[in-house]
Amino acid sequence: MNALLLRTVTSRLFWPVVMLLALVAINVIAFPGFLTITVKDGHLFGSVIDILRNGAPTLIIAVGMTLVIATRGIDLSVGAVAAISGAVACSILLGSSDPGSFGTVAVAVAVALLIALVLGVWNGFLVSVIGIQPIIATLILMTAGRGVAMLITEGQILTVDSAPFKALGSGFWFGLPVAVVIGAVIFALAALLTRRTALGMLIESVGINPEASRQAGVRARGLLFTVYTFCALSAGIAGLILTANQTAADANNTGLFIELDAILAVVIGGTSLAGGRYSLAGTLIGALVIQTLVTTVYTVGIPPIITMVFKAAVVTAVCLLQSPATNAAFARLRQRIAARHARVKEAAAS
Amino acid sequence: MTAPVVEMTGISISFPGVKALDGVDFRMFPGEVHSLMGENGAGKSTIIKALTGVYPIDSGSIVVDGATVSFSGPAAAQAAGIATVYQEVNLLPNLSVAENILLGREPRRFGSIDGRAMRRRAKQLLEGLNLDLDPGSLLGSHSLAVQQLVAIARAIDIDAKVLILDEPTSSLDADEVAELFRVIRSLRDSGVAILFVSHFLDQIYEITDRLTVLRNGRLVGEYLTEELLRIDLVQKMIGKELTALDEIGRRSHTAEAAAAAADDRPADFVRAESLGRKGAIEPFDLVVGEGEVIGLAGLLGSGRTELARLLGGIDRSDSGRLEITGAGTRLRTPRQAISRRIAYSSEDRRGEGIIDDLTVRDNIVLALQADRGWFRPIPKKRQEELAQSYIQALNIRPANADALVRNLSGGNQQKVLLARWLAIAPRLLILDEPTRGIDIGAKAEIQKLVYTLAENGMSVVFISAELEEVLRLSHRVAVLRDRRLVADIENDGLTVDALLALIADGSVADEQAPDAGQAPDATQAPDAGRPADAGVGRPAENPGSASDPTFETTGDRR
Amino acid sequence: MTSTLDRPSAGTPSGRGSRRSAGSAGSSTHGRSRSPFDRLRDVLTSPKSGPVLVTAVLFVAVFVAGGIRYRGFFSGQVFLNLFVDNSYLIVLAVGMTFVILTGGIDLSVGAVVALSTMIAASLLQSGWSPGVVIPLILVLTSVLGLLVGLMIHVFKVQPFIATLAAMFLARGLCYVISKDSISITEPTFVALAVTRIPLGGGLSITPSVVIALVVVAVAVWVLGFTRFGRTVYAIGGSEQSGMLMGLPVARTKVIVYVVSGFCSGLAGVLFSFYTLSGYPLTAIGTELDAIAAVVVGGTLLTGGYGFVLGSVLGVLVLGVIQTIITFEGTLSSWWTKIFIGALLLVFIILQKVLTARRR
Amino acid sequence: GGGDTTAGSSEGPKPVDELVVGFAQVGAESGWRTANTTDIQAAFKDAGIELKFSDAQQKQENQIKAIRSYIQQGVDVIAFSPVVETGWDAVLNEAKAAGIPVVLTDRAVDSQDDSLYVSFLGSDFVEEGKKAGDWVVEEYKDSTDPVKIIQLEGTTGAAPAIDRAEGFADVIAADDKFEVVASQTGDFTRAGGKQVTEALLKSNPDVDLIYAHNDDMALGAIEAIEAAGLTPGVDIKIVSVDAVKDGMQALADGKINFIVECSPLLGKQLVQIVEQINNGETPEKRIITEETTFDQEQAVAALPDRQY
Ligand SMILES: Nc1ncnc2c1ncn2[C@@H]1O[C@H](COP(=O)(O)OP(=O)(O)OP(=O)(O)O)[C@@H](O)[C@H]1O
Ligand SMILES: Nc1ncnc2c1ncn2[C@@H]1O[C@H](COP(=O)(O)OP(=O)(O)OP(=O)(O)O)[C@@H](O)[C@H]1O
Ligand SMILES: [Mg+2]
Ligand SMILES: [Mg+2]
């Protein structure tokens, strides 16, 4: 029992989870109905469901980002890729005669994801073949990509009227939001793909020591291609969800700053930006913390002018609590308490 | 006897899962060279790190110069007069040699660093070690050995009363060691207390006055070097008698006999024809037969590593051709080499070898897994078996497949690396300094392993700064000088001196005959008290050998 | 110790001699007589100075190309305007260079610039003297840098995240000061904003340029010729090694963020000369400009290699790209973005290709 | 500098096809802005006047750089939509010194010295907020119950957000039955409007009215209201600003109740001003674009010929 407690406390997910619970608690105090989940029109309805649904795009991108970060990289272009994918899908739907049909939507989604895939390959090419530093390689697509998205929409917000497409963002599937289902599938897929095969270990190995990995025969180049492509693909999927959620492609704002949220989620989840070992479960918690934070701002009624300060406080708190220095301090505290217990026991025995 | 300048009592340090030090006492006297002895993972480096404040101690006390201290880190220790060269080169590849030597103590003029004075000072220091380097060159462009010397130059420049050298000689060859010892002696004579850690017993017996032996993080005892027989020392270190070495000695006889029968040359496994790479190594011809062990000999920077890297597919050749089992081929990546069952184990364990944040298990299966591709994972059970079998076979400690490799001692990391390459069942194993930093027991085991593997048909290219080791293991020795293969000869009664002559000027003729008779060491089975790693790494003890031209430069200083 | 194994020291005079040359193998290959072309290639491909030189060459090439293409482009004032318009960015890039050289990153600089303009504008509005306001800003932003540095060093928070938190904080504080933009009408600031320092020939620069260049000069000196500066490089090379070498790693790592904070504050002050206002939404994304400038200037994000002058060149490159776009004058908003991205790409790839070393 | 152009503009009218106008746009941050850009570009093309366009990507410093560059290039007229009201004196003085007339579009500058620009052409955001407030007061004039309002603010710190909030607040302050129960920023985006409304509806289920600072946020709010099983425009009334096509459609569909127009179509008027300047005439100092308001019937009527 005690050992279990110790394991829990020393786990790197401990503090993020505590922070998540704290945020939930704040919400419940501010708005007692926060945790209530009701069934409306045959699907689940409630703040928690909203958090899951709105957090799904961030989570999906963060999953891809986790793998990129594990290889010591970073992908700043995810927001732009999301915007492009949304723009492509919407312009296809608008251009078709029957945007409401399932087939059209399938084509639109497929083309959008294909383009996202190509963009991922492009990032992978710049990073692994040309050898450009990831932050700059993806900064290029971050800048130009938004331009491309706007080129597709000509700067307009393309509103589409297509029920199957809309369902991607705000539909329900067996009572669960479709976005949440997609998020869960991607998460599970990534977890299976990397942990059930050797992919995860090889990615970590490249992230920790690229040269040693190369000499051990690891196909670093192929792996980099894979992770950047996967990341862009997840950005594309997230872009479709975001776009479908507002039934419109907004090249400017779709996925704006989502790269920061995704990176933040990854880091809150305990994965180091220096590459190497990663934790998808941590990323999940991180994404939930971020979305809950956003919702908290709304429900608790934090005035917009101090929203940023509040965010800063939360991020700082999580990071400080997670830090080794704090851990050591807690360990000392525990030791002292244990010692006192022992002394008390001794005294009692004698 | 004077009072000890450093006195550590009852030092304990635990890491998660390991008690690295358990109530160890250790002291150092001014004007004395002291050594810490013990197997890989015994806790030698940990004591040094405890003393210099890298690790906080759990219990115990440290007294320096009569005052109880608790250093916050190497900077504080340095300020208190303790200069340290830690195990593994810890320098900055991105800065110049001069900066690496003088960083933190740069000569200044009007508040600015005086670059010229700095280079001059660095040059002097390097010359003190008989090293002719451009102090302005980037450290990263030099070999590990040179870097090790630079680290030493840095430490001896600090005007310290305690100088700590943790395995400073692991990649040095005889000349450098001689120079280093000369410096150590002169520092000792001026009253500095010196801690010298090494796995080379000869070096220990040559230079140290006092020994502290550790085993599994516990103190075995403190002894005066001259009062402790080697055989006893070894026994104290490993806790039992060393027997493996006898065997190797015998095997080397048989090996030689086999090599002598030159007619039945084994089938070629690899044949390189004027293979070369501009700026790295001149085109060379080399044949490695199946089951054959080729030793590469040469001085620092002679191009042994470069040659090995071409064979291992680490670097691409830009001229010549390569045949593997008779078929022409090109190795463009390590991956291609591995798929042809050629393994190259780098000399730079930390930079190009281990993946320090992964577990022992992952490190061991890495190359095998990479070869299979990521979608064909090695089943967990098989991974566990592999890891356990190598942990046992190579005696990796701690014997925990889930330990992070970064937390292993240097020698154990090397074993993990070796296990990784053995796991792919290579047909050609290229070992670049595989025994660096490995304790005598383990070294014997590795040598034995190389022998066994070769007898079972594996080809081996073996690089070592210790010529004895090269001679003991190889069927043939290829000699490099100035990035050129200058000789490729049967190891048929070859001696260290003959080899040295070859290395020096490429001529075999005059030197070999007399030396061969005079020094049959390579073929002689060392007794248990004179372990196998003995040899080259000893400076002049018996000045006067006519055949030794270095006599003038090193011998007279004693 | 009388066994046959005890042999006099190995090695021969000639062996020693050969080792000498081999010991300096890295330089000996360079030392041989070589064609000027080879030597040029060596310089270009050296990890230290290569990227900077290549960037300089590319910058000149782009500038000349612009001059050929656009009327009125090839003038001294257009060149000087690169400094006039980007003096704040130069200062930011200098601070960022310190941070990146240690292998860190500072995402807060844009928000800190905004915060500085807000502090300046609001305090000046309520009648404070510039002589108090400017030092106050510099102290405040340095303290913010100090807090970030401590968070990174003591609590081992990753720089990306610690500075992201600082970015949120600074941006949030901007709003707390005021949601509105505030004009600066204080005479000293206005004077500094409109003063032109004539250089003759109808050319002129602003006081901000002078300040920025002084900052650059100081930074060049600090990084190249002081122990602190060399320690910055050392940390970038290997923090662990630096620590084991007894360098003041902790102190230096923290100070680097103080430097960046100070530079951000100073850049904010220059920015408020430039815009004569405080505006909470200003300088969003400027941190990426600063990072891009530093990287284009040849500094490795992993730390250890790079020069302040490279970063200055990087700023000029970004500036010249922008100038080209305005001179072109026909690009739509989206083509502008694509064009910026493409030019950046061309730059980076050329830099990569020209400095490529054989592997 | 652009000394030669000084001479050009004072000497009398240039042929129209020799005129060069530099236009520094804020960016392309919204559909509204893009419509604005497109309209201006089209108008100049129709008029046969060369337009140098630059996109400041929402950054004041970029705009300053662009204006400097126009001065350098010696254009005849500089027009720009300031990213922010403050801080233009220095660069406008440079333009003045170079003798290049400046026209402001869409947003004003707060400069004391109004000789720095020739004319301002654009909307009055405070007025827009007031119009929205007026409608609300009118709509609820018979009710005595408290009216609970959610305000969806634009990007924190952006001028339209501040002014529209201010104008609205001024008007509804007249009666204390109006209560703004929550006011959050939705960053002028649909996604923002949706997420904020979603959350606020959970904690304030009995809200009567949503005031959105632009149509996009209103459209997002509609989705959130529908997802909560309520009917937008009926259960919860919506007022917004802009009158972009999608907004007008929603208004016509009865999902929005009232929209205050903020027209991006400034092109024709801007060309006029430029021509006036070229002819040596003095345009009016402050030209407020003609803007109207739409209720649901008007929207149905206006929708077919809505351009943007
Ligand atoms: N940071 C660490 N975390 C966990 N365990 C560690 C750490 N550092 C050392 N150890 C463990 O402490 C023990 C002693 O290691 P140490 O490096 O002192 O050995 P050593 O005697 O220097 O060996 P070698 O001869 O191989 O260098 C080893 O079991 C090692 O695995
Ligand atoms: N391309 C290069 N540029 C600069 N330096 C190089 C290059 N290639 C090799 N060197 C350096 O030249 C030297 C060659 O040494 P190398 O490692 O090949 O010799 P070695 O015989 O293996 O010696 P050692 O005993 O040090 O392993 C090393 O210092 C190496 O770092
Ligand atoms: Mg050790
Ligand atoms: Mg070597």
Q: Average pLDDT across residues of chain A?
A: 90
What number of structural domains do the residues of chain A give? Answer: 2
Shape of chain A: globular
Which strand order do you get reading across the main beta sheet of chain A?
1-2
In angstroms, what separates the terminal alpha carbons of chain A?
27 Å
Count the domains of chain C. 1
DSSP helix fraction of chain A? over 70%
CATH class of chain C: Mainly Alpha
Q: Strand count, sense and closure of the main sheet of chain C?
A: 2 strands, antiparallel
Helix content of chain C: over 70%
Assign the CATH architecture of the largest domain in chain A.
Orthogonal Bundle
The radius of gyration over CA of chain C amounts to 24 Å
Spatial strand arrangement across the major sheet of chain C: 1-4
SS content category of chain A: mainly alpha
Order of helices and strands of chain A: HHEEHHHHEHEEHHHHEHHHH
Please name the CATH topology of the largest domain in chain A: ABC transporter involved in vitamin B12 uptake, BtuC
Keywords (chain B): ATP-binding, Nucleotide-binding, Repeat, Transport
Domain ABC transporter (chain B): 6-241, 264-507
Region (Disordered) (chain B): 511-558
InterPro entries (chain B): AAA+_ATPase, ABC_carbohydrate_import_ATPase, ABC_transporter-like_ATP-bd, ABC_transporter-like_CS, P-loop_NTPase
Summarize the structure in words:
The complex is a heterotetramer of chains A (350), B (558), C (359) and D (308). Chain A is mainly α and 350 residues long. Chain A has 2 domains: 2-301, ABC transporter involved in vitamin B12 uptake, BtuC; 305-350, no CATH class. Helix content of chain A is 75%, strand content 5%. The mean pLDDT of chain A is 90. In chain B, strands 6-9-10-3-11-12 form a 6-stranded mixed beta sheet, with helices on both faces. In chain B, strands 18-19-20-15-21-22 form a 6-stranded mixed beta sheet, sandwiched between helices. In chain B, helix 13 (360-372) packs across helix 14 (380-393) and helix 18 (496-505) packs antiparallel against helix 19 (509-518). The longest helix of chain B has 17 residues, at 244-260. Chain B is globular and about 70 Å long. Mean pLDDT of chain B is 83; it is low at 508-558. Chain C has 359 residues and is mainly alpha-helical. Chain C has a single domain, classed as ABC transporter involved in vitamin B12 uptake, BtuC (Orthogonal Bundle), CATH 1.10.3470. Chain C is 73% helix and 3% strand. At the B-C interface, helix 2, strand 8, helix 6, helix 7 and helix 18 of B face helix 1, helix 2, helix 10, helix 11 and helix 12 of C. Residues 44-45, 87, 166, 409-410 of chain B line the site of one magnesium ion (MG).
